[in-house]
Design brief:
Blueprint lengths: L1 H4 L4 H7 L2 H4 L1 H18 L7 H26 L6 H25 L10 H28 L12 H4 L23 H13 L18 H6 L16 H7 L18 H12 L17 H6 L27 H9 L3 E6 L4 E5 L21 E5 L7 H7 L7 E3 L7 H4 L10 E3 L7 H7 L7 E3 L7 H10 L4 E3 L4 H8 L12 E2 L1
Parallel strand pairs: 2-3, 3-4, 4-5, 5-6, 6-7
Antiparallel strand pairs: 1-2, 1-8
Amino acid sequence: MFYTLLQASSWTIFIGRFHPALVHFPIGFLLLAALLEIGRRTGKVPVQESTIRFILFVSAVGATIACICGYLLSLGGGYDIELLDNHMWQGIGVAVFAWIAWLIKSERLGAKIPFSSVIYLPAFLLATVLTLTAGHDGGSLTHGQGYLTQYTPEPFRGLAGMPPIQEKADEIKPIANVQQALVYDDIVQPILQARCAQCHNANKQKGDLRVDQLALLLKGGEGGPALLPGKGSESDLIKRCLLDESDDDHMPPKGKPQLTPDQITLLSWWIDQGAPADKKVSELKTNEAVTPALASLSKGAAPGKPVKQESAIANVKVEPASEQAIASLRKAGLIVNTLSQDQNLIEVSAVNAPNFDDKQMELLKPVSTQIAWLKLGDTKITDAALEQIAKFPNLNKLHLEHTGISDKGVHALKGVKLLEYLNVVDTKVGDEGLRGIAGIKGLRSVYVWQSAVTDSAVSQVSRQNPGLSVVNGFTEAAVAAFLKAGDTTAIKPETKKL
């Protein structure tokens, strides 16, 4: 077990990731001990030495544990070696000098240490100072060099000889003339800088990958090349962005700002064109998917962000679903989540119930009013199920991918007034079915990839219905949006279990 902990493994990373939380204990306690010691010596704070002794002991123990966890975390790699070494030895110094200060304060051992009265204050001071310097380097390791001092205000910047503050863009800045923009310098690099460089830069190289220079991006990391010029869909950079956000391999990690579908489209398009370093937009071929993504970069457009529209169910409120009905659904293997506590709308998913069929649709009747999002992809339902689904008054998003439905079934959905998202990927739905569902007034997105729908029908329906996005699966952006479960509406309810 001990040998395992000395190697990079899931155990070491699991334990090591407690380092950022544990490191706050020695920081807080050492600073508290320093303040109390100052107060005691100046006569301002009536505190007993036993109190300071106890705080020093807790500081020393906390610093030691934080050092162990920090070492285990470092085994995962991806950090600037020199900065990591400085941080490590500073952390060890905090622990060592904290223990020395405690030993001198100890009633039993303090008297046995030569020159203890002379050593105590320097040891205490060094532990405190190293706590601050180690914290600075820790912040640089995690967020990039200069993280703690990046926004130092004037006049302190001038006094310290620091350069003026450089604003860090979180999004792609508007471009005056998109056609004349350099694809890598003006579009690709700003996306990578805003979404990826925090963990893949000169100071922090998660997975041994850097994205701040094209040569290093092409070189890749420990998993191989990050991109394959000419093959966007096969490039690891794109595939990781398209994974479900809960997947451990998804990038950027869950909780970090995510790439928008437009940004994924632009990256994939650049890779498909050979990942050129010095080509302008006008020199590369574009398609129907990348054109609106490029248009969003122009001045006056919201860069990289979809137009906000209020969802059709934003103001819908219904009675809570009965607990008995919810229990029946879960017993059948369905996942039930609440979308909005004050609206009582729910999401029902059959992702763990692949054998769900038409007969089991009866289970949904008691909650038909509460269902807003329904995911029946990869199940055994047929057109018969759609006749019942059409009676769900507040249905907003419907997943039917990889099922046996056809044109006959989707025609029944024409009366679902609040439906905004429909997924019929890999089904028997054809041109007739697409034309029928295109008539649903509020429908915003329909995914027909690998179905019987033809490209000509997609073009025709798109022209006739400018407010409807018909995705035929020909771009990585389409796949990204598909995996995001049709997130084309403005509301993003916080999903919680009922």
